[in-house]
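ligand=xanthosine-5'-monophosphate
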Amino acid sequence: MQQDMILIIDAGSDKNAQLAREIRDLGVYTEIYPYSLGEEELSKLVGIKGVIVNGGVNGEGVVISDAIKNCRYPTVAYEYDGAAALPENDDERKAHLSKLVFDTWGAEPNWNMENFIADQVELIRKQVGDKKVLLALSGGVDSSVVAALLIKAIGNNLTCVHVNHGLLRKGEPEQVINVFGKELGANLVYVDATDRFLDKLAGVSESETKRKIIGAEFIRVFEEEARKLKGIDFLAQGTIYPDIIESGHGTAKAVKAHHNVGGLPDDLQFELVEPVKMLFKDEVRMVGKALGLPDNMVFRQPFPGPGLGVRCIGAITRDRLEAVRESDAILREEFENAGLRGKVWQYFTCIPDIKSVGVKDNARYMGWAVVIRAVNTVDAMTAEIEEIDYALLHKITNRIINEVAGVNRVLYDLTPKPTGTIEWE
Ligand code: XMP
């Protein structure tokens, strides 16, 4: 189905993503392009009902391209070339945008996840035909939604590879196997590479070195699996719109160059399939929900790629890794029972490399200390502490000291970011 689209031209605003979101929330699709957008690229865009040239803080000296200036679509500008700004107040902004998009430009509110899924299934089939696609399925939201979309579009012509690096949370590999391997009947290759990762990481205490080892080993394992599979032409990736916006175009600052499974060797280069690359995170979640993925997969809190590897502080040992995995599972279970899932942004335990004296059965013994961390944030750049109810803290503490082997103390980290980062490493 051909959906209507509003084109947002980045002429120096730092709020293009927000504007794009606001219009999508009205039910009209949006895309953001740089002020230098050329004739050729513009001519490929379809369904345009209007163009917004959005200037702002980074707009000094910005001059939009002739292609945009002379385009045949109705255009308005904010904070560009002397134009006024959009209203600040949320309700006023919404009323203003709604009037512009629906009354002035006559757009239809036909952006919704059902239409998106139907469109993507068709587009994926058109792109890959009867060829084969490979996907690194981590079990995170983005790769899970991509897997579900591709299974719907091409079934067993998709092969998912789930690499368990031994640093996943409790129950995660099992859930991937159950949901994708069993329920959705996907073609799933499961690789338990725990020993391989832990051997490589043995004795390594510096956090960035740990991250590099985990990242490099992940690519190596994935590459080995990819080589075993014959006749693959495409690689699917869970790239999402913020990755593209942040990678920087026009005046947007390049925050990070984003590669999901970047770093594959030259002879293993595939054409990419990136079906959610125009979606914001909560839209990806809505698609996941519409495709029937379980809530605890779709509404999962952020989890670092190096996983529990950066929560087992210093050199990783199997006993502490197990203790962090078990204590994290207890914390998550208790937060979920208390109705806090989806309300607290991120919560987890970590385990520093310190032992302290404890008593058990009238004897002194040295045990590990587990740290509880729970934070709220908008963009992960700064974070505030979640004030956990005392009774809940008490319950979690008792469960951890009684149920987790080797642990005799529980600490509650009250440090905001700054000065502490969210993770300990
Ligand atoms: P920090 O610790 O820097 O974390 O305050 C901010 C957010 O980023 C997550 N994080 C990572 N995510 N790979 C990731 O994919 C990493 O190496 C990594 N380190 C931190 C962290 O969980 C938090 O949500």
